[in-house]
Inverse folding.
C-alpha cells in the first residue's frame, strides 16, 4: 500500500510540471495582454512596464524564474489588481474555495450514496422511481440556472436564507451554495451507486448470504456496500473537476470570495499572472485529491493495489 | 424446362415458397430502431428536439422582429401580441422570441460542431490506441487518464481568453476537450473488434495498419459512437451556456441561451419573461437529449438494462 502510494505521488509530479509549463507558454506566447487598454500606452511606458514585470527577458529565463517562484509559493504579481500579488490573492481565496468544495463534496457524495443504495434496494418500486426522477433534475437544469432559481425561491420569496456574500462564521450564507454545488455531484454518484448496487445485489455471493439467513441490513452493511462503491470511487476523481467547474459558477452567482471569482475576473481582464496562478493551484489541488481517491480505491479493490 | 415428371415445377414452386416464407432477417440496426420506437419517452423527445431544431433554424424567418433589431417604442415590455413581441422585449427593446430562437440556434450549432470535433478526435485516438496496443496504448491512455483528472473547463477558458471570443473557436475548443470518454469507449471496442477474423484476414491480405483502422475498424464502431455522441451533445450545450453565462462565450449582439439566462437572472423579479423563455428552451432541450441518449443506449446495448 505504501509502495503504491509512493508510485502514485511520483507519477503526479511530471503532470504538475507539464501543465505548468504548457499553461505558462500558452499564456505568454498569446497575442494581446493586460496592457492593451482602451487607449494605447506610449511605447516608453510599455517598455518600462515590461521591464518592471521582467517581460523583456528571454521567455525561457522567465519560465525558469516563474518555476523557481512557484516552488517558493510565489506566483508573481497581478498585472491588473496592482496592489496584490497572486500569492496574496490565492491565500485570501483558497481557504474559502477549499472549504466550500470540501463540504459540497462530502454532502454530495454521502447523499448520492444513500440515495443510490435506497433506490437499488427498492428497485422498480415507488421509492426507486421517485429517486430516479429527483436525480434527473440537477442533471438537466444547469447549475447556474438552478442557483438563480433557489436564490429567488429561498432568498427572495421565502426569505429563509441569504442570497449571497459571505463573512467568516456566517454559515447560513453557505447553505445554498453548498447545496447547489453538491446537487449535480450527488446526482451522478447516486446514478452510479444505483447501477452498481443493483448489479452487486444480483451476484451469487449475495444470494448465498441471503440463503444462510442474514437480514437485509446485515447483507447490505457487510457484503454489498463496499463492492458497490468501487465504480463510485473511480468516478470521484473526474467528479472533482466537475465540482470545480461548479464552484466557478457558484462563487460567481452567490458572490463568494473564493479563487474561482478571481479566475473568472482575471480571464475577462486578461490578467495572465492570476489566470496562471489559479490554474496551477487548481491543478495541484485536483491532483492531490485524485491521489487520495486512488488510495481509497486501492483500499476498496485489492486488484488495484496488487497490480 | 419442365421435365416429364414435373419435378422441376414442384421443386421451383417449393423454392419460391421458401423464399416467400423465409424468416425475415433483422439487422442489428433494425432491431435497435424497433426497441427505440418502443421507448415512448425517447420517441416523444425525438419529436420535441426536431420541433426545436426546425423552430430555431426556420422560426426567425417568420418572427416579426430580428434578434438585433431595437423597438424604440417598447423597452422591458411583457409579452405583447398586438406588436408581435410574443415573448416580450429585453432592456434594450429587442424581441425576446427572436433572441431566444437565435440563442437556441447558437447552442445547437455549438453542440453539433463541437460534437463532430470530439467524435473525430476521440475515434481516431481511441482506434489507434486500441489497434496498436502495447506500449503505445499504455502511453496514449495514460494521457487520457491525466486529462480526465484535469479540470478541462480551465483550458477552455484559457483558450477563449487567448484567442478572443469568436464562436468558431468556442466550438472547436470545447470539442477538443470533450473527446476523452469517446476515446476510452472506442479503444475498448477496438480491442474486441481487432480479435475478429475479418481483421486477421485484412492483415493477412497485407493491409496496412491505418488502412485497416479506417476501413475495417472504424465503420464497426458506429453504434457506440452514435450513443456517446448523443450523450455528449447535452454536455456541450451545458458547457457553452456555462461559458456564455460567465461572459466568456458568445458575444453581443449574437446570443446564446446561456447568455440570455445570464442577462435575465438578475432582473427575474421585475422582468420574469427574460429568464423564463430561454430557461424553458434550455431545460426542455437538455431533458429531451438526455432521454434520447438513454433510449439509444438501451436500444443499441440491451445488456446494460
Amino acid at each position: 500500500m505504501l509502495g503504491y502510494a509512493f508510485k502514485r505521488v511520483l507519477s503526479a509530479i511530471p503532470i504538475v510540471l507539464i501543465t505548468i509549463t504548457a499553461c505558462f507558454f500558452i499564456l505568454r506566447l498569446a497575442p494581446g495582454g493586460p496592457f492593451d487598454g482602451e487607449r494605447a500606452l506610449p511605447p516608453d511606458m510599455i517598455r518600462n512596464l515590461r521591464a518592471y514585470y521582467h517581460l523583456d527577458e528571454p521567455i525561457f529565463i522567465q519560465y525558469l524564474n516563474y518555476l523557481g517562484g512557484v516552488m517558493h509559493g510565489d506566483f508573481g504579481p497581478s498585472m491588473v489588481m496592482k496592489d496584490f500579488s497572486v500569492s496574496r490573492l490565492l491565500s485570501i481565496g483558497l481557504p474559502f474555495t477549499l472549504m466550500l468544495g470540501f463540504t459540497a463534496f462530502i454532502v454530495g457524495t454521502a447523499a448520492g450514496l444513500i440515495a443510490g443504495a435506497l433506490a437499488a434496494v427498492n428497485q422498480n418500486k415507488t421509492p426507486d422511481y421517485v429517486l430516479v426522477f429527483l436525480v434527473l433534475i440537477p442533471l438537466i437544469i444547469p447549475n447556474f440556472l438552478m442557483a438563480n432559481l433557489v436564490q429567488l425561491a429561498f432568498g427572495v420569496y421565502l426569505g429563509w436564507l441569504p442570497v449571497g456574500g459571505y463573512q467568516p462564521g456566517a454559515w447560513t450564507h453557505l447553505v445554498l451554495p453548498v447545496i447547489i454545488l453538491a446537487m449535480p455531484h450527488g446526482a451522478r454518484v447516486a446514478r452510479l451507486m444505483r447501477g452498481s448496487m443493483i448489479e452487486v445485489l444480483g451476484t451469487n455471493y449475495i444470494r448465498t448470504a441471503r440463503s444462510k439467513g442474514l437480514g437485509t441490513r446485515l447483507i447490505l452493511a457487510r457484503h454489498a456496500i463496499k463492492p458497490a462503491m468501487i465504480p463510485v470511487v473511480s468516478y470521484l476523481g473526474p467528479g472533482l473537476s466537475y465540482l470545480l467547474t461548479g464552484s466557478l459558477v457558484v462563487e460567481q452567482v452567490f458572490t463568494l470570495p473564493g479563487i474561482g471569482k478571481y479566475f473568472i475576473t482575471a480571464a475577462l481582464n486578461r490578467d495572465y499572472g492570476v489566470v496562471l496562478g489559479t490554474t496551477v493551484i487548481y491543478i495541484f489541488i485536483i491532483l492531490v485529491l485524485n491521489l487520495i481517491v486512488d488510495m481509497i480505491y486501492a483500499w476498496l479493490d485489492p486488484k488495484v493495489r496488487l497490480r | 424446362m419442365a421435365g416429364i415428371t414435373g419435378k422441376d415445377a414442384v421443386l421451383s414452386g417449393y423454392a419460391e415458397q421458401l423464399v416467400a416464407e423465409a424468416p425475415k432477417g433483422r439487422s442489428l440496426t433494425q432491431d435497435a430502431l424497433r426497441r427505440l420506437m418502443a421507448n415512448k419517452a425517447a420517441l416523444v423527445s425525438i419529436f420535441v428536439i426536431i420541433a426545436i431544431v426546425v423552430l430555431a433554424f426556420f422560426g426567425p424567418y417568420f418572427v416579426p422582429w430580428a434578434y438585433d433589431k431595437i423597438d424604440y417604442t417598447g423597452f422591458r415590455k411583457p409579452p405583447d401580441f398586438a406588436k408581435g413581441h410574443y415573448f416580450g422585449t429585453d432592456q434594450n427593446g429587442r424581441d425576446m422570441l427572436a433572441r431566444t430562437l437565435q440563442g437556441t440556434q447558437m447552442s445547437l450549432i455549438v453542440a453539433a460542431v463541437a460534437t463532430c470535433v470530439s467524435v473525430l478526435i476521440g475515434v481516431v485516438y481511441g482506434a489507434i490506441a486500441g489497434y496498436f496496443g502495447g506500449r503505445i496504448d499504455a502511453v496514449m491512455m495514460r494521457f487520457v487518464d491525466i486529462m480526465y483528472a484535469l479540470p478541462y473547463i480551465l483550458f477552455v477558458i484559457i483558450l477563449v481568453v487567448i484567442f478572443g471570443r469568436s464562436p468558431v473557436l468556442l466550438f472547436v475548443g470545447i470539442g477538443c476537450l470533450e473527446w476523452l470518454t469517446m476515446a476510452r469507449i472506442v479503444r475498448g471496442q477496438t480491442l474486441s473488434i481487432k480479435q475478429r477474423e475479418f481483421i486477421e484476414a485484412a492483415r493477412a491480405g497485407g493491409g496496412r495498419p491505418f488502412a485497416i483502422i479506417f476501413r475495417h475498424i472504424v465503420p464497426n464502431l458506429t453504434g457506440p459512437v452514435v450513443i456517446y455522441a448523443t450523450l455528449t451533445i447535452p454536455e456541450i450545450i451545458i458547457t457553452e451556456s456555462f461559458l456564455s453565462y460567465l461572459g466568456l462565450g458568445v458575444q453581443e449582439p449574437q446570443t446564446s441561451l446561456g447568455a440570455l439566462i445570464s442577462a435575465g437572472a438578475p432582473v427575474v423579479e421585475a422582468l420574469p419573461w427574460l429568464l423564463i423563455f430561454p430557461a424553458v428552451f434550455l431545460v426542455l432541450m437538455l431533458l429531451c437529449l438526455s432521454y434520447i441518449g438513454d433510449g439509444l443506449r438501451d436500444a443499441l446495448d440491451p445488456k446494460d438494462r
Remarks:
- Chain A has twelve helices and no strands.
- Residues 216-253 of chain A form the longest helix (38 residues).
- The CA atoms of residues 21 and 63 of chain A lie 8 Å apart.
